[in-house]
Amino acid sequence: MNKASALTFAGVLMGAALAQIAPVAHAAQPWPSQPIRMIVPYPPGGSVDNLARLLAPTLSKRLGQTIVIENKAGASGTIGVDATVRATPDGYTFGFGVPGAITGLPHVMKVPYDVSRIQYVSLVARIPLVIMVNPAVPDTTLAAFVNNAKQHPGKINYGSAGNVTTPHLGGELLKQQTGIDIMHVPYKGAAPAVTALLSNEVQMFPGDASAALGFIKSGKVRALAVASPERFEGLPDVPTTAQAGFPGVIVESNYGVIAPTGTPPDIVDKMASAIAQSLAEPGLRRKMIDQGAIPTATTPVQYRQLMETESKKWGEVIRRGKLGLE
Q: What's the pLDDT tens digit per position in 117-176?
């Protein structure tokens, strides 16, 4: 072999070696390798934002990356959900799925996203609805309240966080299940609805436990029943609606993590697993219960099935009650 041939042969060998090394050198970094954005479709300081900020530190430790909360409020949660669904599906953007924007509003308005294409990751928490009244109302049980309402049709007002929000739908479900005639008064959020309840502007508020837990425990409002399948650990002395004689009145706000459409399945599964591990930690669980939430992890498939079932349920309530945004 002459010198030129030897050099050519050596070049071929080196090229082959580099070809073997190159895929390793350019292999994608394992996920996650950078901070993760979590879109919350409500303003800072509310119950959904608090839930996300409770989860973020524990989830960050599990993933080894910072979770950056980004609030994109407006249009009853649809702006934030739309921003999540349309984001680049690279595993570095997730969002909080909120029930109104997924299971309620699509029945009364055109939302900017295709609900069927939402990529579900995992449920994070169920927040039970609590039927609560102003202390001036003499009724101490849900059955007594229903009887009182039947004797005074149209005289009792109930507040909500706005049209087609969970409290509005919960109040409508109670009406449909019991045949009572109570008047709906919508407010711009749960906080003003609670204020109206405290001042007796409305006599009843069927709101998330997180919205008024402190007022219930201090006796400023009276809880008649929790509209969940089992008693809520945060209010152990309050019966469920089924125990109160109204098993058809089950209302919970289901909050979870969703991802942009097209996010790789392996990343979705890894995030779901990290959420489940985070929610299993006693410290985080206790903090969530203290804020009125029931920590609950699911698989992506289970979360989708739950939201589809909820959508059918509330779609029927909306149609029967002829509900709308006005």
A: 999 999 999 999 999 999 999 999 999 999 999 999 999 999 998 889 899 999 999 999
Q: How far is CA 8 from CA 11, 12, 21, 141, 203, in A?
A: 5, 6, 20, 92, 91
Closest CA to 253 of 112, 51, 2, 13: 51
Render pLDDT for 199-225 as a digit per residue (tens, 0 to 9).
999 999 999 998 889 999 999 999 999
What residues contact residue 25 under an 8 Å CB cut-off, 6+ apart?
A: none
Structural domain spans, the chain: 36-126+252-321, 128-226
Is the domain spanning 128-226 CATH 3.40.190.10? The answer is yes
Fold of the domain built from segment(s) 36-126+252-321: D-Maltodextrin-Binding Protein; domain 2 (3.40.190)
Q: What is the pTM of this model?
A: 0.86
